Amino acid sequence: MKNIIVGTAGHIDHGKTALVKALTGIDADRLEEEKRRGITIDLGFAHLQLTPEARLGFVDVPGHERFVRNMLAGVSGIDVVLFVIAADESIKPQTREHFAICRLLGIRRGVIALTKADLVEHDLLELARLEVEELVAGSFLEGAAVVPVSSMTGAGLEELRGELARVAAEAPEKDAQGHFRLPIDRVFSVRGFGTVVTGTLVSGSVGKDQEVEVYPRGRRLRVRGVEVHGASAERALAGQRTAVNLTDVEPDQLARGDVLSEPERFRAVTRVDCRLELLGSSKPLKHRAPVHFHSGTAEIEAEVRLLGGVAALEPGGVAYAQLVARQPALVLPGDRFIIRRFSPVVTIGGGVVLDNGQRRYRAGEDAAARLKVLAGGDLAARVAVLVKEAPFGLGMAELVWRTGMREQQIGAAKEGLEVLTQPQAWYLDRRWFQEARNRLIQSVGKFHQEKPLLAGIAKQDLRSRELAAAPPFVVDALLADAAELLVEGETVRLRRHRVVLQQDEQQARAAIEEAFERAGLATPAVPEVLAQSGVEPARARALLQLLLREKRLVRVSDELVFHHSAIGQLRKMLVERKATRFSVAAFKDWTGVSRKYAIPLLEYLDREHITRRDGNERLVL
User: What CA–CA distance (Å, rounded) separates 350 from 274?
Assistant: First the structure.
């Protein structure tokens, strides 16, 4: 089943609501004030099973200039516009404004209905048709069907349904496989059920018992139930008018302009880069001018910051700009928006969001070159720009938020990038990756020059020196890619590095080992042994570390080091007493050592799983 959203547009009292009722049998005027005054004040909704393969959801929007803000909340997310013009009045101010809004929002398809055709003579009907064709010339509605209709007599309705069926068949479906987003256009309470929100599901799907997040409020809620076009459903799909019953929230805690989406999938922002078009009928738009920013169902006060040193955008002009909003909103690249002047409140332009990364441009930075790439159709190039700007690359979750694309689409955009798969998908600029890898190699080489007696540098020390803020797994990937380096546990060295001792170092090494070997289990203090080695303290400590790495010596505690032969004899003695329980006093008798040595040795044996403590005794394993 193909689901297509049809939005009405047109001047007040040109018959939009009457036409929707004539087509669907549903009165979209839901408010008593609307019925009393005979005009649509807020959004109305209806639906029509047009063909076995296509179902239309109608969003009926107000035409009065005072209610254009409500109109904007409904027109976002529509696939097809039903452009309504009364034959007896033809083109009016809100006709032009609604038409401009539809064009700025990137709507690609539509049908034009000449309503109240029964009230005019044939000549006036043809004149209205000519005026309509002149209005839409060169736009997305050029060549669109113009159908005279009468909601009162029913004339032309079948032809209009046929044209809607044709256009609906051509319209692409919204992405039901994408990430779930539902801009909220109504919030109300239903007795026995609680809070219900409605909106046009612009992407993904939502089902019963699903956890959702309300953006920008950051509140997590559970879906109690879902309705599609007034009927209960297990799941709603992109392109459907959807009502969602939410648990544990009051209606006054939500509002039009909020967005339901996946928890922690996106971030609400106050700053977006965009491509901005100013209508030809507008006055020049100055840098830092205040505007009303309409995106999805949200309306937010914002400031327009023209990029590239532009002082003002002339009527009919296009420029790159940054919009700085007073409140955060969920906005993704590719989203269309409208801006309206503060006073008088009229539509002056609109455009498309290019980046939601809240970037702050430096003086002299070529923002246009950057945004030209982000505005292009090459997803790989767009991903590459975002990844290159990040100090240590970007993960898949961040790229989904920064591009608005699905994981599969991003996964195919790898040109010029290094992609890590473990412990998560992570994208790195290839040039940066190569330069960082070479920097690590050089740093390890420098360490060897400074401390030739050490086998290598600790991995954590290397990271702190060169890539302190980088995720550890990025450093691991760089080390794994460096053929010149060898990682041995937590130590990193050049593969070609070998410890070569000078003659005095060889003598000192032998003296240190001999001192510990001669002492047996009554091991001497480490500082005393190093002081008598015959070399300066720094080299003596390095030689001690060398003996420990070679396992000629064994460190039992921070203060105690034993020769491997003494530990070996101790192990052999305990093997002969397998399954024996013993106390500390017995251990002292067996070994002839004092408590100073006995306790650290026993703790070492426990760690090595040679013994196991059991109360005040130990068991030989």
Answer: 9
Average pLDDT (612-620) is 91
- pTM, two decimals, is 0.79
Q: Tokens for 263?
A: 């928890």
CB 38 within 8 A of CB 20: no
| CATH code, domain carrying 352 | 2.40.30.10
Provide the residue range defining the domain that includes 12. 2-170
- Total Cβ atoms within 10 A of residue 366: 11
Tokens describing residue 539 = 């080299």
Please give the C-alpha separations between residue 475 and each of 264, 307, 397, 427, in angstroms, as whole numbers.
27, 37, 20, 13
Peptide bond into 216 cis (omega under 30): yes
pLDDT tens sequence across 244-285: 999 999 999 999 899 999 999 999 999 999 999 999 999 999
Closest among 305, 22, 298, 294 to 164, alpha carbons compared? 22
Question: Per residue in 525-552, pLDDT tens?
Answer: 999 999 999 889 988 988 898 899 889 9
Beta strands 269-278 and 347-355 are antiparallel
Residue type, 435: E
8 Å CB contact between 215 and 266: yes
pLDDT at 321 > cutoff 50: yes
Output the DSSP codes for 122-143.
Answer: HHHHHHHHHHHHHHHTTSTTTT
Q: Residue 72: its pLDDT value, please? A: 53
SS3 507: helix
Task: Give the pLDDT mean for 416-437.
Answer: 94
128-148 pLDDT, tens digit per residue, is 999 999 999 999 999 999 999
Which of 356, 371, 386 terminates a domain? The answer is 371
| Nearest residue to 258 (alpha-carbon basis) of 325, 199, 202, 190 | 199
Instruction: Say if residue 359 is in the same domain as residue 386.
Output: no
Q: H/E element holding 506?
A: helix 503-519
Angle (deg, nearest 10), helices 430-450 and 459-466: 120
Residue carrying structure tokens 């400590």:
541
Rounded CA-CA distance 374/384 in Å is: 10
Looking at 75-164, which runs of residues are DSSP E strands?
80-86, 109-115, 146-148
For the beta carbon of residue 344, count every other beta carbon within 10 angstroms.
Answer: 7
Quick one: average pLDDT of 86-113?
89
Nearest to 300, CA basis, from 65, 10, 72: 72
Q: d(Cα 24, Cα 57) in Å, to the nearest integer?
A: 10
Residue with tokens 């080390």: 479
| 79 within 8 A of 4, measured Cβ to Cβ | yes
Q: How many domains does the structure of the chain reveal?
A: 5
Q: Is residue 490 part of a domain?
A: no
Structure confidence at residue 110 (pLDDT): 94
Q: DSSP letters of 331-390? A: --TT-EEEEEESSS--EEEEEEEEE-S---PPTT--HHHHHHHHHSS-HHHHHHHHHHHS
CA 125 to the chain's CA centroid: 51
